[in-house]
Records
---
Amino acid sequence: MRQGLSFEAPSVRDGDWEQMLRLFIQPDTEADRAKLVGYMEQILFGLQEFLHNHVGVTEEIGLKELALGYMDSTICFEPEKKLPEVISDIIDRIAPQAVNVSSPYFVGHMTSAIPFFMVLFKAIVAALNQNVVKVETSKVVSIVERQVTARLHRLVYGMEPDFYEKYVQSTDATLGVFTEGGTAANLTALWVARNRLLGPREGFDGVEADGLAEAYRAYDIDRCVILVSRRGHYSMRKAVGVLGLGNRNLVTIDVDGENRICLPALRRKIAEYKADPRTRILAVVGIAGATETGTVDPLRKMGELCREAGIHFHVDAAWGGPTLMSDRYRHLMDGIELADSVTIDGHKQFYMPMTCGMVYFRDPFHLDAISYHANYIIRRGSVDLGIKTLAGTREANSLILDSAIKVMGRKGYGMLIDHGIDLARKLAEEIRKRDNLQLVTAPELNILTYRFCPTPLKEALLRSCGAERTRLNEKINDININIQRIQRESGKSFVSRTAIDKGVPGGGETVVLRVVLMNPLTSLSILKEILDEQEAIYREYYSSLDLQGTGV
Amino acid sequence: MRQGLSFEAPSVRDGDWEQMLRLFIQPDTEADRAKLVGYMEQILFGLQEFLHNHVGVTEEIGLKELALGYMDSTICFEPEKKLPEVISDIIDRIAPQAVNVSSPYFVGHMTSAIPFFMVLFKAIVAALNQNVVKVETSKVVSIVERQVTARLHRLVYGMEPDFYEKYVQSTDATLGVFTEGGTAANLTALWVARNRLLGPREGFDGVEADGLAEAYRAYDIDRCVILVSRRGHYSMRKAVGVLGLGNRNLVTIDVDGENRICLPALRRKIAEYKADPRTRILAVVGIAGATETGTVDPLRKMGELCREAGIHFHVDAAWGGPTLMSDRYRHLMDGIELADSVTIDGHKQFYMPMTCGMVYFRDPFHLDAISYHANYIIRRGSVDLGIKTLAGTREANSLILDSAIKVMGRKGYGMLIDHGIDLARKLAEEIRKRDNLQLVTAPELNILTYRFCPTPLKEALLRSCGAERTRLNEKINDININIQRIQRESGKSFVSRTAIDKGVPGGGETVVLRVVLMNPLTSLSILKEILDEQEAIYREYYSSLDLQGTGV
């Protein structure tokens, strides 16, 4: 019965080997090709149409209820479904209950709509299915990866043209590596810094070979510390833990009133550790676009300080890096070129699909500190990119970035950056105008935080102190937690929430609402709608707020 | 001039914000939609047609020459190219100089053709662009990921149904995690083992918090060792290095005549380290499908040994894991269910596009040893999957695996596994029949190695000893290196080469040719063609082999 349907129903239900082979080759009849195009149209338009028409962020259904439909843990012997059914299921059942991160009303995380061509590029990369761990499975794609790596290195460091002439395709040098994401990029940077700081010396083969305990004995020290502001991304803590350094040795430095690392405090800490013969400073980390506030540390001053003290300076520009593409705002990254290593994410402000991270090194030979070889591939001296990466097998995401840069130019990416930053400033103005709201962190890039703090509460706060003030702040925190949750659950818009310690003067842990503006379809009027909805939620749930009950 | 072409030429050359927005929304006219379908057809058919017609592995052009075309390191302000040009470039310029890993003549690495629907699924994942680090950016997709994780866990461990009933959607438990690939999976397993072995005790907060040097002091030891056979993947060495344990503490155990870990030697080593109060055994690693030989270690015996000795038993089944889908061959994985943790790759024998790794844990709470939290996401007690992964942002590859399993069933994957193993056995027979060839490692799964060793040289080897034998072996190694290189460079077929120490009795480092059989389009007659080509190369270059000159 199914013979005539072989391509239409590409499953192996019939156990037919011929049918299996059909899955691995392209359709050769016009009718079969038309069906394949049909699938793709289903994906491109069915899915995209859903995502774009369904402006809301997600359907209203609780996670627990949703989970009940996904309890079966068996794998059937016979195929459970045919391909068209699986695709339809994704479009009709999964997509509506996923999160529409491409909605202009989804402004809560570092994820947004991406240009439609990114999906095409991702499909190309999957169809080519190259493995850039080695040239034997990638050839020219490894060469393209070297080129786009040099392009980004130049964007960050702007060395002389002859530097790039020499190193762009040099198999000895490595200007940077692509990673799974920012976490792996930060880990790679600190891994390099660790291995360089605790390299081989007499009677010791280096930390990579001999391990950390041996290294501390060889160097006669008790610990290594990494310094970062308290706005550092949690991946730093994780990286330090993985590397065996102990994540308590990630020392967080206080921030100033604008959420930037406090330079005098950093200087004091460096001096303190320098004076302690049992401690080494492994790295200082600057942030170029803090996850929670979008703040950029004073990179130039940090870089100078590190150079003076001979410390590895890493900049986590996972978020902010692409700001370098904007002529208007690249000055916000001033000093980034002093970094020994820089993390930039592709899936953030390069608008690539999940996932792509990168880490760049000023010195083309620093990555040698983590090189690994194997007999069957990535042989010593070879041109294989996998010698100096944390990952083995790796997707050719570099080809997506390379293609996107060609289509967009600095101009295109610059426009997106400019839009986000400009819009964030307008939103900040709007928030300042509204009595119920309080801007907590003003935007430096395209991220800001604010909170609900209606006038009577603001005034009460000013009059209060001690336990009274703590209790009031907790009350305000609760209000914000509830407003964010109710808005999220109602499914039309999404802002995120986080907690910033000392977010407001005299406050402790301050719950804030966080807006990230990267979707070019998000406009000020959409943002006003989002604020209006929040105000409506506030009125509905808190109009009868018993200010007496709160101690006011 | 370009106004009418806005969608046809989706670039921002004109600096028009409207045009930029068009990149982020789907086309709304019929004509525009047709153009988008056109692009996709270009990719699906242009690219696929090229890959399938161009049976050869790659075009003849040296890497150095190729690199000359990719020297420019600048990023243009204006877009360099329009989208259709970039796509055409990839199809016409990149693809021919990439490696056609989908060719049935490409049998050298663990990469092959993948079912065409995988490209569709990858496009879907990119279009949805969910970030499974947290439910706020993935919702139902996180739930799907939990389900497919339970499915694979059950395939590996086969616990009772009520175990899965309880844990499949439990937010407390974690049956496994998706990773970038096998390296990250192995790293995750050893990271968990490290943190569990060196957990908190009085006056010590655990290795993750306090670091390794502190941990060794608290436990009064000098080192931790990890034991694996000398056929272990190089990612083990890398993982041990990253974790700060010192990669010299990856202790390699000898193998028996069939490339399986030598159990008596393993027992001796375990006893030796157990007797040393200054050393702890962090893990024993079993291999289920060695990268170079495809061998499977005696997992059951290793598992029993580890259980008895209270040692974490990790199985690297990155390659072999999907053998569990085959009713005929799943017995080759016997004992895998005794492992504390198991690595399986999706982009290998689950035929997923690059990249997808996974690691499963028998105990649903072992992954707690590496949990990390952050304020703005993945809050303590939340259902966010990112709490227990090395990566932060993560692509929803789980959706691809889930979909593929539905379309293929165990039956479909089983057929692929069976084909590879059966074909490898036939190839082994064929090699045994040919006088110039010598089978070095017989296939257990679908990988084998062999070498050119013509009869006169074989006989001379038998008569020789000492330096004479070494010199002869080196000569044979050279021949094999050359044959593999010439065949690869001529671009039609690809087998890989590696070096196996003591590959042949009395031999030292033995260069071998390695065949990996996973492409269902590869047949015995294609393999005979590949061998014939090698024999022809041998005749052309070595017919006049001066046996006197080689000392024979």
---
Amino acid sequence: MRTAICERLGVEFPLFAFSHCRDVVAAVTNAGGFGVLGAIAYTPEQLDTELTWIDEQVGGRPYGVDVLVPGKVDASALDGGARLAESIPERHRDFVTHLLSKYGVSGPAPVARASADELGRRVTAAGATGLVEVALKHPIGLIASALGPPPPEMVAGARAAGVPVAALVGTVEHARRQVAAGADLIVAQGTEAGGHTGEISTMVLVPQVVDAVAPVPVLAAGGIASGRQMAAAMALGAQGVWCGSVWLTTEEAETAPAVKRKLLAASSLDTVRSRSRTGKPARQLRSAWTEEWDAGQESPGPLGMPLQMLVAETAMQRIGQAAERGEPGAVELANYFVGQVVGQLDRVRPAREVVYEMVSEFGDAVERLARLSR
Amino acid sequence: MRTAICERLGVEFPLFAFSHCRDVVAAVTNAGGFGVLGAIAYTPEQLDTELTWIDEQVGGRPYGVDVLVPGKVDASALDGGARLAESIPERHRDFVTHLLSKYGVSGPAPVARASADELGRRVTAAGATGLVEVALKHPIGLIASALGPPPPEMVAGARAAGVPVAALVGTVEHARRQVAAGADLIVAQGTEAGGHTGEISTMVLVPQVVDAVAPVPVLAAGGIASGRQMAAAMALGAQGVWCGSVWLTTEEAETAPAVKRKLLAASSLDTVRSRSRTGKPARQLRSAWTEEWDAGQESPGPLGMPLQMLVAETAMQRIGQAAERGEPGAVELANYFVGQVVGQLDRVRPAREVVYEMVSEFGDAVERLARLSR
């Protein structure tokens, strides 16, 4: 299966794998797909280490890096060098303390102040650019920008290095804006996707974006975890697919075991678009965490990005540790970003096997369709 | 393009057109598709008249009838022969009066009590069965049941007449239940669809339903208004597609002119799943009506089905008349059931042309896909 984007990026199958785990990225790239490492969790130094490891694994095969550039953040929180953590209102801190106590989560206090500034920097344009500088020292084949348009210095740096820039969008309007800002490749992501996502479904969004930005190539994201779904996305006009959720239950994924069990057991009705983890609507597993923030009587309501991210991630670290110790309240609270395809994920497989099965099922689906129109 | 369902139903293209307008049903059937008349708006006598007209138009080509069988209604409202309209709480009546006044809608009082019992009967199993009895006297090729499983007497009647029964579902669980109740054909409808709809997208839902009910054939609904989307749906494993929204802006549709203009101008972001028109979540154009009921400070919240349907439809009749007179507040309130594909609908075309374009684009999409996998 060859699309123009395969030629351009030197990839065998136009199957892009977004993952925070370097092992998944390397496995997919080595299987003929295109691994993309989500860099948000790393400092520039850590990212350098991860990419060096990937370089050693993939022997020159193509992979990419994804950074988060929010279009709008609560910038006041970053002003004047004030420590970000200090901007979190007392009642939000109190609500987290109340939640952890209500669900009997043991362990140390949740607010890890030391990482607050770091996290804040990482979700701003300046922070993303720092990560991109590190990434461009490696032989990467793609820089992807989630949320906002890529800042001019990121585009300039990537251009100078000959690395295409991809941008994730949830509306036609955003797609046009991203192309105007210099994106070489658009990832049109439907509402069914995991993580930050809009309201329009993949089936509706992809053809509209394809038509709006032509001849800029479009990848489809959201609802894609099988070869039939890959064929459907490409019937809509996409040149390839961008998948995230399907890798969370692979052997290589570092998904916490308690969360992995919840993912394997979940149906497609068990996700929710919630602002409770990052401050922006992001699809994730429905859990006591999302229910308490979104519908709990005592909830102060989520903060904006990046403050809610800070509130959530520091609490989630503690919840995750308690869940691994088997504390039932912590298991109830634990969740992760995942799309509606979670209902299809019912066993742990090597990432390589997922790639091969998707490519094989894609071929079957196309053959079946071709027979119909004869 | 021939699928097993084409053979079984004697149809040229597996393109099913749901419409409340007999002209659309006849035009699609005559163009080689399969028109399905939504019967909820009719009394048994009116339905008989409409079907007689269709019979005269289609010369034996296949068409079907769709009835609404809610799984759960507020049955207490129908008990003891009490007049349904009398069950509407005072504050809901007052809210409608307030809304019409706030938006300056002129005209007579909104509650048409005479039609209340009628409407109530039409959304219950007993009411649906009455419509089905009439439909089965005509040479129909399909009975479709929206919302709940078809009642046993409906299945028995259809079986005796040799007419297959189709059922709309939004989850795998509902699909299994419908097959157990005797459905011969499942319409798996994604959240992006207009009207009553669930939360799971077409891209995610269709393959799961196909696998769960095999070998029962599945049609895909939701997000389908073009040949590319039809090809995508069939790549997912559907044997055909079920479309509703795309007909609303055809020449043949009796869509009110003010609403038609709103549909043509709307983007895919302009729909919302709201309980404000029927009491159950139904996707429709976002308008002052949905905003006031769902987020207005004075809103008493929507009632259940069928009471909210009664509240809404009687008010909407008056709003529609005022909108046609050009009253701006009425135009703000006016809306209609439509899916996210509304963003693709930007001109008025004959229904026949929509069918031909979809079939032609389907062929192009399949050919493009086939070239990719060579």
